[in-house]
Amino acid sequence: MTEFSQDNMRLCYWNGSMNPFIIGIVGVGPGLKVLLDIINNEVFREFLPEMTLVAISDVHQKKDTLALGELGIPIYSSYAEMLEIHPDINLVIEMTGNNDMFSSIRKYLPESVSLMDHREIVFFCGLHDMALVKGNYKNNLAQQQVLIQSIIDEIREDIFLMDKNGSVVDLNSVVWRRAEIPKSDLIGKTCWNAARQRDGSVFCDKFDSECPFHKTLRSGQKEESLVTKVNKDGLLQYYRLYAYPVFDIRGEMSHIMVMHRDITERTNREKHQNQRDRLAVIGEMSTYLAHEIRNPLFAIGGFANSLFKSSTLNEKDREKVQIIVEETKRLDRLLTNMLNFVRSSHTSRKELNILAVVKNAAELMSIGYGQRGYKIEVCSVSPLPNVLGDEDALKQCTVNLIKNAVEAMPEGGVITLKLDLNGGDVVLQVTDTGVGMNEHEQDRVFNPFYSTKEDGSGLGLAMIKKIVEELGGRVKLASKPGIGTTVSLFLPPALDVAVTEANEVAAT
C-alpha cells in the first residue's frame, strides 16, 4: 500500500502545468456574490488556482447592471460579444439558471474553453463557507497562541519546552533575555546552553542524570528537585526544578516542560524564621542548663582550686588537678557564650563614625598579625555617612571577621576592609583570599554551634548576624572554594531627621 505524505495529499491537477483561469460570467444569480468573493479573495488561493474575472454578459435587469458597474468589470449584452472581445477567456460560468442558455453556450464554445453551469456553483458556496470557518478557527487559534505566549512570557520562572532528545523546542522570554541571546539561536540547543542564573551566569554545563528532565523521561511523571548554585559573585542561590511530561493525542509522551524557580529569597526567609524558632528553644534550654550546670561546676572549680593550692599534692597529681581547673574554666566560658548569644544584647543605637571604628579595629589587629605575614587594608568611598549602632559591638564584629579571615589564610595574605554605599545602606565588606567555603558550608555557616574549626564554638558568624540584625541591618556571605570569602555587613545610615522635620514644618 502506497503511503502519501501531507505534501502528496495536497497535489491536485492545477498544481501542474495548468494556466490561470480567465473567467467570463454569463448572467447573474444567487451565487454571484460568493463567486466574486472566491475570485478576488487571496484566502482562497490555498484551495483554488489563480482566477481572474475579465467580463460579464447577459445582464438583463437594470439594477443589476448598475450594481455590477461598480466592480469596474465590462458588461456585454451577449456572451458571443464577450467572447469575441475577450478571446483569452478559458472558463465560462453560466449563472442565468436557464438550461437552454447553457446548451446554447456549450455549442458555441470551442473545446479549449471550459464551461460551468449554475448548479455547480453550490460547490463553490460550500467551499466558501468552509474557508470562512477555517479562517475563523485560524484567527481564534492565533489569538489563543498570542494570549498563552503573553501569559508564559510574564511568568518570572524560566520555562523550557524540550523534546525527548533534550533539545529546546520553545522557551519564554525570561530565559533568552537573561541569556542575552536571541530566541531563535537557542531553539534546538540543549537546555544548559540556554539556562542562566539570576545574574546571567551559566546554570549548569554538563549532563546530569539526576536532573528532573531525565527523571521524567524515565518515569513519564512529574519530577522535581532542589538544587543550590553559587553565582559568579560567590553568592549561594536556591532553585526548585520541575519537569512535566507532555502527551500527544495517542497518549504518548512527546515533550517535557522544564521550569526553574528561584526560591532564594523564600528560602532565606524560611531559614531566618527557622533560626528564630531554634534560638527560642536554645534560649530556654541554655538558661535551664546554665542554671543546672553552673552550680555544680562552680563547686567543682572551687574544690579543684583548693586542691591545686594544697602542699600535699605531688607533681603528677597537681597536673591532673590543673587540667580540671582549666576545663571548668572552659566550660564556664562556653556557658557564658551560650547565654550571651541567646539573650537579647540590647545594643544601643547611636550615631557613630563607622570608618573610625573599622580603622581602630584594623590597627588593633595589625599589631598582632602584621608581623606574621598578614596585611590589613582599609578603603572607603567619600563622603560616607555615619551609621546607627553600638561602637563596641560593631568593633567586636569587625575584629571577629578579621580573625576569621586570618584563620582562612594560614600562610598569610591580604585582608581588605571596604566601606561603601549600597541601596541606602552603609556596607562593610571584609574580604580574604583564603580557602573559601563550599555550598554545604555556606548553607550552614550562620547556624549557631556550627563551626568548621575543631575547637570552635560556632557562635562567631551567628553572633555577628544577631548583633547586626538587632541594629536593623543584615549580613551577606559570598565565598568560592580556593578563591576566598567576603562577608558584608549592611548597616542603617544615620539620617538627618531633625533637618528633614524642620523642612517639612517650614513647607506647611
TrEMBL record:
Annotated keywords: ATP-binding, Kinase, Nucleotide-binding, Phosphoprotein, Transferase, Two-component regulatory system
Gene3D superfamilies: 1.10.287.130, Histidine kinase-like ATPase, C-terminal domain, NAD(P)-binding Rossmann-like Domain, PAS domain
PAS domain span: 144-190
GO molecular function: ATP binding; phosphorelay sensor kinase activity
CDD domains per record: HisKA
Membrane-spanning parts: none
Domain PAC: 221-275
UniProt-listed Enzyme Commission number(s): 2.7.13.3
SMART domains registered for this protein in UniProt: HATPase_c, HisKA
Name of protein: histidine kinase
Domain of life from the UniProt record: Bacteria
Catalytic activity: ATP + protein L-histidine = ADP + protein N-phospho-L-histidine
UniProt enzyme class: transferase
Entries under NCBIfam families matching the protein: sensory_box
Positions of the Histidine kinase domain: 288-495
Organism lineage string: Bacteria, Pseudomonadati, Thermodesulfobacteriota, Desulfovibrionia, Desulfovibrionales
One Pfam entry name: HATPase_c
